[in-house]
Every structure is written in structure tokens, then in C-alpha cells.
Amino acid sequence: MKKIILREDEMPTRWYNVVPDIPGGLQPPLDPETKEPMGPEKLSAVFPMALLEQEMSSEPWIDIPEEVLEVYKIWRPSPLVRARKLEEALGTRAKIFFKNEGVSPVGSHKPNSAVAQAYYNKREGVKRLATETGAGQWGSALSLATSKFGLECKVYMVRVSFDQKPYRKSIMQTFGADIVASPSQDTNTGRAILEKDPDTPGSLGIAISEALEDAAIHDDTNYALGSVLNHVVLHQSIIGLEAKKQMEIAGEYPDVIVGCCGGGSNFAGLLAPFVPDYLEGKKIRFVGYEPASCPSMTAGKLAYDSGDVAMMTPLLYMYTLGHDFMPPGIHAGGLRYHGMAPIVSALIRDNIVEPKSVHQLECFEAGVLFAKTEGIIPAPETTHAIRGAIIEAMKDPDEPKTILFNFSGHGLIDMAAYDSYFAGELHDYSYPKEQIEKSLARLPNVSKTDEID
Amino acid sequence: MKKIILREDEMPTRWYNVVPDIPGGLQPPLDPETKEPMGPEKLSAVFPMALLEQEMSSEPWIDIPEEVLEVYKIWRPSPLVRARKLEEALGTRAKIFFKNEGVSPVGSHKPNSAVAQAYYNKREGVKRLATETGAGQWGSALSLATSKFGLECKVYMVRVSFDQKPYRKSIMQTFGADIVASPSQDTNTGRAILEKDPDTPGSLGIAISEALEDAAIHDDTNYALGSVLNHVVLHQSIIGLEAKKQMEIAGEYPDVIVGCCGGGSNFAGLLAPFVPDYLEGKKIRFVGYEPASCPSMTAGKLAYDSGDVAMMTPLLYMYTLGHDFMPPGIHAGGLRYHGMAPIVSALIRDNIVEPKSVHQLECFEAGVLFAKTEGIIPAPETTHAIRGAIIEAMKDPDEPKTILFNFSGHGLIDMAAYDSYFAGELHDYSYPKEQIEKSLARLPNVSKTDEID
């Protein structure tokens, strides 16, 4: 059999929360002003209670609402595929499996959380969601999700993407979202920045600040984030739960689980249900691959830091390059984030997840090989996972082992990146040491950090 | 259950050939020079024998080679989905099902034939395929298929698309194809046209001529066509065979089957296996929807005509607007063809298929409604089938009936069309009566035509 596909009635009906498994536990988010642990009351201005409960939950299993499952079924359960042609091309004895999250209507894993977030907001009477998007994957996913639950959606899209990625904009528009280039005239943050610098290309940090301000000033509006947070990782656990069942059907168990890491949610979602096995002594490795040019896990510091440039978010305890680190313009926009999900960060600290980095040219090369062998063009982000899987397979090509990686999305909407690659316009960036040192020097001063780190 | 998905081992292992079912039979293709029926010997210069046998076959069932099935399994079997949210939004009592062919790696049904064509060419020792592509769907599909069988692929892409649709070009490039803007310096046809008019935007007619010339002058090269021909319809019957099984599992049988029609292959592929039931007295309607601006079925003439502007192809007996009819620049590029598959044409003549036409604005409107209700953005071509299904559902909303339509492809690579729609730049074209009369007056003079038509 080439693909393993579950029946709809075999789909998981509960998400798996990996937080209780983390040996060293998680540090609480801190209030950016008081530096004290932040309770749900303050966060409830922009998040619904159900998501805040999930954010703080220590329950291992959380029911997936029927309404969320119904929307998941537009594309889920997703296939698990044995990449035999890739194996043959590599000449490896390793068995390589991938979980194909590119089958969603917007081509990535992002709707797994977007749908859940839209549902809980709707249930708690929220009328409108505000969010930011860089490359457009998260904005597309949330637009899809809000259209399914009859919510309005306002997307602050980083201006440079807004101008250069019109297709993503029209995907969101088709789903009925309201999209504005960020910085915009719609918020105080945006207006202030535009006044100083009318031609700014914008940044994800600015867009987050605008979306948060929008949610704060509109009574009917909440904010939604597409990665990093615990509840996002929780929702993405559907990937790992399905994959685990599918591997069982295939009669296999992974020796290595590989993922690409931006904010960390797709990788964490895949590995979550396998962590208990690891803790019970099963021999399994979890390897996360990030871009060498934005190396939060491999060159960052485990510390409390802000999620955005303007320091409006709670402080999260995570591997970070510093909240004002500006990564080079690599083509995997979804991996250009200064921090890493607290869950992934804690699993690295506890020596469960191994962090690695790869350069973009070797990733595109792997992506083209994958397209030619397996027939599916990966998103630039996903090529990092493919490169990672190839590295694992080729370490000792004669050693039989089973590799499972997350195919987080297809590349059909990101072909401009391949254009640049084929045109020879892309190059690898050297490790931005000096810049990282500078931005790490500007981490918020939190006394707690030192005792833990 | 939302979707019905077959297991891989439930996939059809034979294609269904609807030709023997056609009450009035098919007219043979004619040699464009002698106007005599054209045997396989002359065509074998550009097609492999196996495809020519399929083209002429009167066998109802033809085995799908194992190697083709293996590649199909990258995305097949494809889902059958009940569009309940669309039904609710319409307030109809009709049950609407769609077969989702958008799940292929290039987002459309085209690889169903591309893979088979690449396989048979490879088996007969061909090293290289030449083809034309307009919007890029067929070129992408053939590039994918040739990459799977280790063939070279040369795509002549209409210049205006080559310049305006860089993403499609890079999809083909990722799969290893060689793409050139047509007219090109690579053929006599191309050079002659460029000499006269260096700034020509090109046309599908010119691109077909270039690809045919390429195949004719290179010993190792064959030609591949993505629609119209009988063997293409045969390969697309996998759509209908799966859908029929899936409808049985759903406990339903369609009262109406709807499709969009360009060259006719996706619609014919869906309806083919249902025709025998119709002939045995089952009450079922087959309704094909074409653009009102390119109305070969509803305003064309059933006659022998050429498949390309330069009249290099065999003459086919089909509904046609005349081989030099230039359709307006509507955004469903895949439906801008002057002729209709001989199989579909014969089924119209025999009063089995009902031809209808729709305007592009009502189609985009239907496409946006579909995206918001079902969560999947359709290709501009596919919106014609959706519009058709809605028309059928709303004829008498209180009458319970079951509608099945072919969702031939997703729109993620064609969002520029939606951009134009949202920007209010699109308009409907009135019926191009005068132009059709002119081009029909230039049909090739074939004495046979008159006695049959």
C-alpha cells in the first residue's frame, strides 16, 4: 500500500496535551509590565476562556468539539505516505514516511488550529477575529476557519507580502476576510509608524501589535495566533495522533521523528503523542530542523522574551534570538520567527528534542528531489523537514531505520521562491552572530530567568 | 459521513470506454490533406501504438497498467463529498455531491491522462514528450507525469501565459520540464511567426503546431494532448468509476450529472460509466456547462474540423466554433477551446448529453459561495460546474433530487482570476455571433460532413 488513510470514523476525537509529560515542566507566561505570572483574567481581553484553559491545562486529553471535527473532515484525516521513490533515489535502507498536511484547502497544517480557535471564539459570543500574517499561510487558514463559523476576520498582512503575494490576499478575500497592509491607518500603532516612515515594508512584529490593538479596542473582537502557544500545539496534536494510528496500521514505529521549526507547532503536533512512549523507555529520537539564518533553537538563549517587537504579548519562556532580531529574507517566511514554542523549548532543555539547523539552498535541492520522486512540490518551509529526513536517512544508509516527518504544506502558492531558486538568485546566509548577540542583549530583564536558565 | 473515500485496494483497475455505448457511433478522424479516414500508421509518428489502439478501441474495459496505478496512488482514490453546507446556503432539498479531483499534486484532473500517456510512451521507447499548454494545467500535469517515468518534457507555453503565470512555469520547472514561450525560436512555425510579428502574445493554436512539429522532427519525441481525444476521455473514466462506487457506498444514485466543458474530458470521464445505466432505462440526466463566450456545444456546428489553427491535427467530427475562432479572454483559460471532444459531441447528437452555457460572473459568484460554504476554492473552470449544479438544484428547490458534479480542480494557482473578479474588472461577454459565423464559414470542406450533420 502506498498511502495509509484512516476512515473518518477512525479520526481522533481528542487532542493530546503533551505539557504534563514535560519532565521539567513549563514556566508560566509573565505580564510584560509587572514581570509577574499572568493569569487568565488579563488575557481574556483578547482570548476566549476555553482557549486560555487549554493554554494552562495539565489534562493529557481534551475533547475535540463535534463542530470542529466536522470542519476537519473537509480534508482530514490526512494521508500517511511511504516515500519509496525518495528512498530509492537516495539509495538508503531507511524507510521514510511522511504525514501529508498539504491536503488542507489552504495547503498547510495551519487550519488544524485556526478552525478550533474560530469555533471557541464563536461559542463565547465573539463576532470578529483580528490576526497578523506574514507570508499568508496563517491568514489564509484563519480566513477559511472564520468563514465556516460565520465570524468576521481582519488580517494585518505585512506590507511587503501584501504587495508581493497578491494570491494569498485573494485567497483570504475569497473566504470573506478583510485584509489590510500593515502598518495600516486602522490602528494607533500603524498610524504612528506610517507617520515616521511612510514607505516601511512592515514586519511581523508590527502586524502582531496592530492585531492586538485591534482586539483590545473592539469589544466584539478577539485575537488569534497561529503558532508558539500551548493551545496551538494542542490542536496540532491531531497530526501526531493520526500518524501514530497510521504507523501502527503500516506495522511500523518511527526511530526518528523529524519536523521543520518556525514557531514550532507543526513539529510539536506531530511528536506530542510519541513522547509518552519515549518516557517509558522506547528508543525514539525527535529532531527539529530550523533555518541556519534564523537559529532560535541552535543559537538562541532559553529565556523569558516577548513574542513581538513592540513587547505587547506576555513574556514567554522560550529559546529566542531576541524579540527585535531581524532574520534575513530567506524564502521560508514561515520559519522566520525569533522565538520557539515554549513546549518545544522545554523539550529541548530536557534533552528530548534535538535541535538542528540547515541552509536554504540544500533545502530547495531536497524539495526539488522530493517533487521529482514523490510527485508533490513542498512549501519552502517543508523543504527543511525533507532535508532533515534525508540527513537522518543518509547518516548510515545501510542501517535500517524508520523515519517519520511532517510534510507541513505544499508549495503551489509559493512558487515564486522556486523561481528565485532556479534563477540562481538565492544564497545561503552565514550565521548572523553579531546581530544575535545584539538582540539577545536587549532581552527583557526578568530576574527569574537566571535561576532557571 | 462527510466524505466517502475508497481504500487503495478498492480503486478501479480498468478504465471504462464509453465509445461502444454511443448509439450513433463515432465518425473516424480524417487526414487533413486527403480528407480520408486516418489509420494508426500515420498517427504513429507522434503517438505510441498503445494510445492509438485505445483511441480506436471498441472494447468497453481496458486494464490500467500497474505502473500507472502506482502513480495514481500519489493522490487517488479521490474523495466524494456531500456539499451539505452549500445545500443549506441554497435552501434546496437537493442532495449535492462532488467528486474532488483537486487533490492531485497539480490541483486538477489532468494527471489522470498525463500519467497514462507518459507511461505508454516510456514503454514504447520514447525518450521525450512535446506538448503545448495555455493556462498551464496540462503542462504541469505532463511535467509531473514525465518526471515519474524518467522522460524529458518540452512544453510550448502560450507567451501571454508564460509572461503572466510565472508560478505555473516554475511548477513545470520543479518537475524537470523544459519550458519555452510560444511562438519560440525552436521550431520553423515559431520562427516564421516571430519574424512577421515579434510581439505576438501567442495562441494555443500556435503552441499545438510547434509541439507537433517538435515531435515530428525529433525521432525520440512524441506528442501529448490533454483533452478532446478518445484516449484522454478513457483515462478520465477513473473519475466516474470511483464516483459510482462511492455513490453506491453513500446509498445514492445521481439524478443529474454535471460538469464543466472545455475540451470535454473531465465531464466525459465522470459520466462515462453511468451511460450504460441510462441506456438500460435508468432516469439520469447528463448536463455539460460551457462558457457563454466560447459556446462550442450550444452555438457551434457538428462538423469535421481541425484541432488547431494551423490545421496540422487530424480532422475530428465534433461540435466546433471553427478552428480559428478566437474566444474572448475569459478567466477560465481551460474552457477557451473552439471544439468539443468527439465523444461528448456524439452524446449530444444522440440526445444523451444536454449542453448548456453560463456567464463568467455568475460562475465566480458560485465559486465564492462554494469556497465560503464548503471551504475549498475552485478553479475558474470548475466554477462553471458549480454554477451548473446550483442551477440544477434551484430549478425546483422543493423537489428532492441527487446531483453529482465534478470538482475538476482547485483555484489556489489561479487566484489572479479572483483578484480581477473582486476588483470588478471582469465582465460578461455577449454571444459572439458574428465571429462564430465567420469562423464557421472557414470550416474545412469535407463532403462527408453534410450527409451526417
Automatic annotation (TrEMBL), chains A, B:
GO terms, molecular function: L-serine hydro-lyase (adding indole, L-tryptophan-forming) activity; pyridoxal phosphate binding; tryptophan synthase activity
Tryptophan synthase beta chain-like PALP domain residues: 75-409
Enzyme Commission identifier(s): 4.2.1.20
GO CC aspect terms: cytoplasm
Cofactor(s) the record lists: pyridoxal 5'-phosphate
Pfam family, any one: PALP
Keywords: Amino-acid biosynthesis, Aromatic amino acid biosynthesis, Lyase, Pyridoxal phosphate, Tryptophan biosynthesis
Annotated catalysed reactions: (1S,2R)-1-C-(indol-3-yl)glycerol 3-phosphate + L-serine = D-glyceraldehyde 3-phosphate + L-tryptophan + H2O
Pathway given in the UniProt record: Amino-acid biosynthesis; L-tryptophan biosynthesis; L-tryptophan from chorismate: step 5/5
InterPro entries, per database record: Trp_synth_b-like, Trp_synth_b_CS, Trp_synth_beta, Trp_synth_beta/beta-like, TrpB-like_PALP, TrpB-like_PALP_sf
Quaternary structure (record): Tetramer of two alpha and two beta chains.
Matching NCBIfam families: PRK12391.1, trpB_rel
HAMAP family (alphabetical): Trp_synth_beta
UniProt name for this protein: Tryptophan synthase beta chain
Gene: trpB_2
